[in-house]
Amino acid sequence: MDSIKGQSGIQMLLTAEHEAQQIFSSARNLKMSRLRQAKEEAEREAALYRAHLEAKHQNRISESSGNSGSNVERLEKETGIKIQGLKDVTSRISSDVVGMLMKYVMTVET
Prior knowledge:
Elements: H1 2-106
């Protein structure tokens, strides 16, 4: 009788070990499945974020390209105003400068 009880105890242990292996295997498979799912989700989010940043960058490029024409016009206008100011100053003082130069050229120190 003891041998039957011993055999049945061993059989119960083997059955319990087999069930434990199945539980661990199932848990490992579930864990791997969740990891794959998390990786795919992270890759998808990264791709969306990358696309968002690229679109933002393209918008900035197109905005700055569009503004370059208006910047050129503004700079040309400012440059024209400054040139005209220099011409006005030059015409006002040119006679004084010519007179001063003539004075120094004509004056001979002995």
